[in-house]
Amino acid sequence: MMAVVALSCGKDDADVSEGNGEQPSVTGTPIALSGSLQEEKAITRSTPLEESTTFFKVYGFKNTDNALSQYQMVFPGYVVNWVTNSAHSSTTNSSGWEYVNQQPLGQDEQTIKYWDWSAKAYRFFAVAGASGTNVVTGAYRTYNPGTASEYKAYEVSYNADAHEEATIPYYSHLWFSDDGGGKLYGQPVTLEFLKPFSKVRFIFIFEDPAKARETTLTDKEFRPASGNTIKTSGKVTVCYPLTGTATTEMFAVDAEAEGFRELTQDYYETVERLDSSDPASVVISPYYKADDDAKVLSKIYTVLPVTGQGNYTMTVAVNGEPKSTTVPAEFMDWLPGYQYTYIFKVHVDGSVTIDSVQSAFTPWTDHSADHTVYNW
Q1: Which residues pair with 139 in a beta bridge?
Q2: Residue 193 near residue 170, CB atoms below 8 Å
Q3: CB-based contacts of 285: which residues, under 8 Å, 6+ apart?
Q4: What confidence tier does 115 reach under pLDDT thresholds 50, 70, 90?
Q5: What's the CA gap between 6 and 248, in Å, rounded?
Q6: Pairing relationship of beta strands 338-346 and 198-206 according to DSSP bridges
Q7: Is 271:289 a contact under the CB 8 Å cutoff?
Q8: I need a labelling partner for 33 at 20 to 30 A (CA). Which of 74, 196, 269, 322 fits?
C-alpha cells in the first residue's frame, strides 16, 4: 500500500532552522504536514492517511554545500499526529496533522521548522504506523569510507512478518530535491509510503478452454530451483542517503529471514459446478475437481521482497502426469509494493509452459491495472 504525505509551506523567505532545538525566526515560513493514503483501485487517487494510521515519524535533512557532502538535520524524527477537527488551527497545521508540541512525554519539545532557501538540497523520509510491539530503530552509517564515492546515510530497521501484515509499519521512499528547475522548495513534499512486502500469485489457463472441465491439476509447487526458502518473516532495513547525488533509498532483508519452500495454491476467484443447482455437484471450472474450499479462493501470497533468487520451477500433475516448466531468474525479482502474477498455460498435449508474467504497483488488492511486462 502506498501513502502520500505532503509537507508544505508558503512563499515568504525563511530563516534557517538547523534542527538543533533552537527557536527559528518568527519571520520564517513554517512547514505544515498532511497525509493521505492511496485509494485501493485507483493508483492516481488518494484517501486520508488518518483512516489507516493517525501518526508518523518524519526525518528531514538539508545539504549546505554545492558538493552535497555536508548535511544538517531539520526534522529529527518528529512525531506527527492526526488531531481531529484541527485543520487550520495553527500555521503548521493545514489539514489536521500537527507536529509542534507533539513530542512523547519526557522528550525534547518539537518546534516549528522553516524552509532554508539557501540550502543546496533537501531530503525527507518517514515511518508511519509503528507500534510499541515493533520498535523501529535508526542509525547513521558511512558507506565506502575513505574513497571518492563515500557518502553518509541513515538506516531505518524493523521486523516484518507477512503473517502480521496489518500491524507492520509503512516506510517511505526518499524525497530528494536540489531545487533545480522545478523550484520545489516551499511547495508540498509528497512522500510515498509502502509496506515492506511483495504480493505473488500464480494462475493456470488452458490452450483449449473446453479441456479445462475434464483436466485435473494436482500436486502444484512453484518454488526456487535452488531449494532456498521463500522469505516471509525477518528484519528489513531501509537505507536513505544523506550526502551525494543518490536520490533513492536502498531496501534490504536480513539473510536470516524465515519462510516456506513453495507456493502451492493457484489463484482463482470462483468455481463452477457441473450442476449449478447442486452444491455437491463436481467442480468443472477453473478445472476439473478444483478445490472449492472458500479458504483457497483468490489466493495471493504475501512475501518479503527479494532480488537475485534465481530460476523458479513449476511442477504440477496434469491428469496425474507430472509436468514442469521454468521461469527464468530475470523475472523473479520482487520489489516492495508490487504484485506479481505468473500465468501458466496447459496445452492440449498436457504439457505446461509459462505464458506470461505480470507486475503492477498494487495497494494489496486485485484490480485490473496489472500489465504484462513479458510474454513468451
Answers
A1: 155
A2: yes
A3: 212, 213, 271, 272
A4: confident
A5: 18
A6: parallel
A7: no
A8: 196
Q: Distance between CA 331 and CA 264 in Å, rounded?
A: 19
Q: What is the pTM of this model?
A: 0.84
Q: In this model, does residue 5 exceed pLDDT 60?
A: no
What's the pLDDT at 151? Answer: 96
Q: Is the pLDDT of residue 370 over 70?
A: no
Using the predicted structure, report yes or no on whether residue 252 has a pLDDT greater than 90: yes
CB-CB neighbours of 229 under 10 Å: 15
For residues 44 and 345, give the distance between their C-alpha atoms in angstroms, rounded to a whole number: 33
Report the C-alpha gap between 360 and 363 in whole angstroms.
10
Confidence at residue 47, expressed as pLDDT on a 0 to 100 scale:
53
Length of the chain: 376
**Distance (Å) of CA 352 to CA 154, 219, 226, 243:** 47, 14, 21, 50
**Which has the closest alpha carbon to 286: 206, 367, 201?**
206
Joined together, the cell numbers standing for residue 338 give 508490487
Question: All 3 cell numbers of residue 295?
Answer: 479458504
- Which of 138, 289, 139, 134 minimizes the C-alpha distance to 218? 289
96 pLDDT exceeds 90? Answer: no
More confident call, 274 vs 356:
274
Per residue in 159-185, pLDDT (tens digit) is 999 999 999 999 999 999 998 766 778
Alpha carbons within 13 A on the beta-carbon side of 353: 8
**Residue type present at position 78:** Y
